[in-house]
Each structure stands twice: as structure tokens, then as C-alpha cells.
Design a protein that fits this description.
This protein is α+β, with helices and mostly antiparallel strands. About 15% of the residues lie in helices and about 30% in strands. A 6-stranded antiparallel β-barrel has the order 19-20-21-24-23-22. A 6-stranded antiparallel β-sheet has the order 13-14-15-12-11-25. The longest helix has 14 residues, at about 110-125.
Length: about 450
């Protein structure tokens, strides 16, 4: 495996490493694929891309009450937006169908699931656990890694049962939740190796890049080669807490920080803007250890209890990652930045869960912009999170800014997850994977 360095005056975005051939075959030929589709008859479900479904959900979110709304997801196989409606509320069903989406009757509202996640936070916060709302099952998915045994497992199981039937389910992970510090392009600092996520521009015009927060708290100075001279200095880092991200500014103010991701073999993906994640959305991850891999987003607003502490507001995926991939870019085939690699379980042989810091949240926190400056989708991203607070996510496009959702019980997640080859884009810039939240 070869790694591209980040030239001091021409820093190329994120995750070097050898390209995963299968992932590259999916990614590169479709870089400019169209995202639009439509239905033929009024009140029939419309055929939508993931990005178009996000836009539609933003409109519906303003009309649906939180007690009647149970989340939403994108059915990639049918190219339809599925909206969960609590009970048999005919008025809501009519509104959903008129908009061109599919109304699906469910038991749990996002408001009730939000309350349940708070219960989990108070009763089941033990290292090695994580939870996020899964709109496809209308439940909270609680995951416990292999270290959760004995009394700690009993505690988690008891907390899940206390929520009542059909509210949450628990599953075991074969791996162990941990941050992926070690080693886009590799960066080195204080004996640690991580990956560069996305290049950004700060409010005062200084060039910099995003990486994981746990990388940012591990070292203040970072280099593009092992034992090399520093090229950047950490300005802000968050980990643990409300995220896992860090902002590093280039020491040379003349650095030309290209808005692209190096995916290996001389190929790159131009990053246009930052975008919100969507359940069911296909994404690609680049890291300096394992290169390019793809998978799907499976949960939003996830809470992960690492050994170092609890991190909230993350994106859960089935994309693999390994030590050294921390901070690397997660993005869509059409150039939307979605996340920064935080941590997870497993590896790229056995698989497992991997969690990412949303790029939109990181940009807002550090006051930076990526690509053309967009922090959301075609009209503003909607992100509210079912894991800790209400709504799911919708965003996409060219003009919006990140977190809006539908307040606390708000809008839902777009995305299915059953079709690995789903249309990728729900707005955004290609996502950076990041690991760190406030500590510096």
C-alpha cells in the first residue's frame, strides 16, 4: 500500500492508501450521476434520488407533528421516501401521500424514542455500548461490544427491557469499540498516526483541515510524514463529549488546500460542499491505513461509550475501518463531505460498526467552510438525530446550513440500508470522518 503525502503548498484532501477496487468501480464511473426522478401519477409514490428525498422530507417535516411522526428513510431499491406515521392518522397519511412519499404505520413516535434514549443514557452508559434510532425498524438499536459481559451486560439488557416491548433491541458486536488512532493521507503527531479528513478555510481565510477530535487531543502539532517537520497546529479539538472532531490550521498560510479526496491510483474526488447524512445512503470512506471502502449509513445521532468517555451526535455505518483511519473522510460519490472517522469495532476483514463525526456539525463548531461553503443540501440540511434528540436527518444541496431538522421531535432520516448500491447523494460534500470533540 502506498500513501500520498500532503505537500506543504498543495495539500490534497484526505485518505490516501490503496484504492479498494470494488469500491472504486462503484465510485468513479458514477461521480456525476443524475439524482432526479419523478412519478407519473398524482398521489402515487414518486421515484426519488436520496438527495431529492431529503428535500421532500424537509417540506414534510414542517407539516408533521412530532406525536404523529416516527422517522423516515429512503428505500433505495424502490427509490421511494418512506415516512413512518404513528397509528392510523388518516390526515397525516393523506399529506404524506400527496407529497409523493409512502406512508407507513408504526408504533413509536420520534418523540417517544427520544425519551427512551435519555433513559438509556442514564441507565446503560457503560464502556463498549452504543445506540442509535433505526427508522426502518422504528426502534432504538443498542449495540454492546465483546467487552460488555457479566453485570455490565445485565445492566444494558435491563435498561432495554425497562423501555417496554418494541421500543429497543440489543445486539452483540464481535469487536471492541475504540477510536482508530494510528493512521485519506496519513498525518503524524506525538507518536500517533491519523488521517486527514477534509481541507477547509477558516473564518479569517486561513487554510486548514478537519480530522478526528481524539487525534487533536493526542498531539498539538501534526506532520505529513513520520518524524517530519510539522505542517499544522491544532486550533480546536472536541473529544469526548458532543462529537469527535478537530481543526488543524496549516503553519504555512500560503498552503493551497485543495477541496478533493485522494482515492489512490492517481484518482481524486472533488469535494463540493458538506452535507447531512441519511439512513440507507451509500457512502465511501478513505483512510491512510485501509484505503477506500464503501458501505451504508445505518443510524444517526448515535451515542458511543468509548473507554475514554461518551461521544454523542455521531453517524453509525457498516463501513469498515482500522487503526490509523481515524479522522479520514467519508463522502458520497457526487462529492459531498459527510463525516470524519471516529471509531468502532472490527476491521476490514471481519467487518463491524464504524462511527463518524458529521462534517456539518464540525464546521459549525469551528467556524470553517468546505468546498463552496455549503453546509447542507439543496435548501438546507435537516439534522436532528434520533439517538439523542428527536429527528433524523435529511439535508442536502447547495445552500443550506446544517442542523435544523424538526426541532426535538423533528424530521426524520432519509435512507434505507437494504440496498448496498443505493443512490449515494443526500447533499453534501463527501464527508469527513473525524474523531474529537472539545478538549483544546
Amino acid at each position: 500500500m502506498s500513501h500520498r503525502r500532503i505537500p506543504k503548498r498543495k495539500a490534497i484532501l484526505a485518505g490516501a492508501g490503496a484504492v479498494g477496487i470494488a469500491a472504486a468501480a462503484i465510485l468513479l464511473p458514477n461521480a456525476n450521476a443524475s439524482q432526479d426522478g419523478s412519478g407519473d401519477k398524482k398521489d402515487n409514490p414518486r421515484k426519488l434520488s436520496a438527495a431529492s428525498a431529503s428535500d421532500l422530507l424537509q417540506q414534510l417535516a414542517k407539516q408533521l407533528g412530532e406525536d404523529s411522526y416516527g422517522g423516515a428513510y429512503y428505500d433505495a431499491s424502490k427509490q421511494q421516501l418512506v415516512v413512518n406515521v404513528v397509528g392510523d392518522n388518516n390526515e397525516v397519511n393523506v399529506e404524506v401521500k400527496k407529497a409523493g412519499a409512502v406512508a407507513r404505520s408504526v408504533r413509536n413516535s420520534l418523540a417517544s424514542l427520544k425519551t427512551a434514549t435519555r433513559t438509556l443514557s442514564s441507565r446503560a452508559t457503560v464502556p463498549g455500548t452504543a445506540w442509535a434510532v433505526d427508522p426502518r425498524t422504528n426502534q432504538i438499536l443498542v449495540t454492546a461490544d465483546r467487552t460488555v459481559t457479566g453485570g455490565r451486560w445485565d445492566r444494558v439488557e435491563s435498561a432495554v427491557k425497562s423501555l417496554g416491548d418494541g421500543v429497543a433491541r440489543v445486539q452483540k458486536s464481535r469487536g471492541e469499540f475504540k477510536t482508530f488512532v494510528e493512521g485519506g493521507d496519513a498525518i503524524f503527531g506525538g507518536g500517533a498516526r491519523c488521517s486527514l479528513g477534509f481541507n477547509v478555510t477558516t473564518q479569517d481565510g486561513t487554510p486548514g483541515f478537519l480530522t478526528a477530535g481524539h487525534c487533536g487531543v493526542a498531539a498539538r502539532k501534526w506532520s505529513d510524514s513520520q518524524n517530519g517537520a510539522p505542517i499544522g497546529t491544532v486550533q480546536d479539538a472536541v473529544f469526548p463529549g458532543n462529537g469527535d472532531f478537530a481543526l488543524v490550521t496549516y503553519d504555512d498560510p500560503n498552503t493551497q488546500a485543495a477541496s478533493s479526496v485522494n482515492v489512490g491510483n492517481g484518482q481524486k474526488v472533488d469535494i463540493k460542499q458538506a452535507a447531512e447524512a441519511a439512513v440507507g445512503q451509500q457512502v465511501f470512506r478513505m483512510g491512510s491505513t485501509t484505503g477506500l471502502h464503501d458501505g451504508q449509513i445505518t443510524g444517526l445521532n448515535a451515542t458511543v461509550n468509548y473507554p475514554e468517555g461518551t461521544v454523542t451526535g455521531l453517524i453509525q455505518t457498516n463501513v469498515c475501518a482500522e487503526p490509523g483511519d481515524s479522522g479520514g473522510a467519508m463522502f458520497t460519490r457526487d462529492g459531498n463531505a459527510v463525516g470524519l472517522t471516529s471509531g468502532g469495532s472490527g476491521d476490514c476483514t471481519a467487518g463491524g460498526e464504524t462511527f463518524f463525526q458529521p462534517v456539518t456539525t464540525a464546521l459549525q463548531a469551528v467556524g470553517a467552510q468546505i468546498g463552496n461553503g455549503g453546509a447542507g443540501g439543496n435548501g438546507g440540511a435537516v439534522n436532528a438525530g434520533a439517538g439523542d434528540g428527536g429527528a433524523g436527518n435529511a439535508g442536502a444541496g447547495d445552500g443550506g446550513a446544517g442542523n435544523a431538522g424538526a426541532g426535538d421531535g423533528g424530521a426524520g432520516n432519509v435512507g434505507d440500508g437494504d440496498d448496498g448500491g443505493a443512490d449515494a447523494g443526500v447533499g453534501g460534500n463527501g464527508g469527513a470522518v473525524n474523531e474529537n470533540r472539545r478538549h483544546g
